[in-house]
Amino acid sequence: MKVAIIQLAYGDDESVGERTARVADLVRAQAGHDLVVLPELWPAGGFDYRHWDERAEAVDGPVATALAAAARDARVTLHGGSIVERAAPHGTDGRGLFNTSLVFSPEGRLVATYRKIHRFGFGEGEPVLLDAGADLVLVDVPVRGASGDRERSVRVGLSTCYDLRFPELYRRLVDAGAEAFLVPAAWPMARISHWTLLGQARAVEDQCVVIQCNTAGTHARHEMGGHSQVVDATGKVLALAGADEEVLSIDIDTSATAAWRDAFPVLTDRRLAT
Predict the structure, then answer these.
(1) I need a surface site. Which of 86, 113, 121, 201 has the fewest CB within 10 A?
(2) Model confidence, pTM
(3) Domain that holds residue 231
């Protein structure tokens, strides 16, 4: 599976429209990949809480429309990072806003959405402003063979940023058939060692490929951490970005995951299955 991770950098001086157009062009430049991944909340600003409400939109809004067109033009499966989604609230005390990931097919169809389950902020930010998601989401990513035709698919589990700290989510994704985890994020530089370490931990304990796409740059007075990475099912880091805007391109041997699980069958020795 050939993957492009777009570690996007942005600041406070770029409008949402300008950023969306720039991101769409970056996606189009990744033609030839099977999967392209963007970071969390790049349209609204990962820590730009005061603008989230005004920048919220539906899953068929202008950002989604631009991403769908870019996926179709590049003929890639696109994980569009996440938006602040405006939708019906969860319950009578809901806010009607969610941190929602969007996945588009190579034909430009919206094929999956994932509402972030674990909201970061310890009583501020996401827990105050956004509703929590509740659903486990997996999506099949078509993969090209040597002939250029899409011969098989890889089943990937979706999660977002702070979710990475909750191993029970990833164990449930493995039990649902995940071969890889996708983790778009707006993870700050102050805790970047946790980001890389937790990615390796989730890979080792679940014998699963972990694809992490972080944000770069500085916005809303928060320096973002970068260091997007790909970790294989043994915990080996296959690719690691720096701190600035960068595109990581890597061809992942997904068949190696099944081979490792067969050779070192940790998952079959579980005693406390959830």
Answers:
(1) 121
(2) 0.97
(3) 2-269
Least confident of 76-85, 121-130, 184-193: 121-130
Assess contact for 214 and 39: CB atoms under 8 A: yes
Q: Does 274 reside within a domain? A: no
CB 254 within 8 A of CB 180: yes
Mind listing the pLDDT tens digit for each residue in 224-244? 999 999 999 999 999 999 999
81 inside domain: yes
Q: Determine which one of 57, 85, 126, 161 is catalytic.
A: 161
Residue 116 is among the residues annotated as catalytic for this protein: yes
Catalytic: which of 40, 57, 85, 179?
Answer: 40
Number of domains in the chain: 1
Is 161 catalytic? The answer is yes
CATH number, domain with residue 211: 3.60.110.10
Among the options 57, 85, 116, 179, which is catalytic?
116
Q: Which amino acid is at 35?
A: L
Whether residue 46 lies inside any domain: the answer is yes
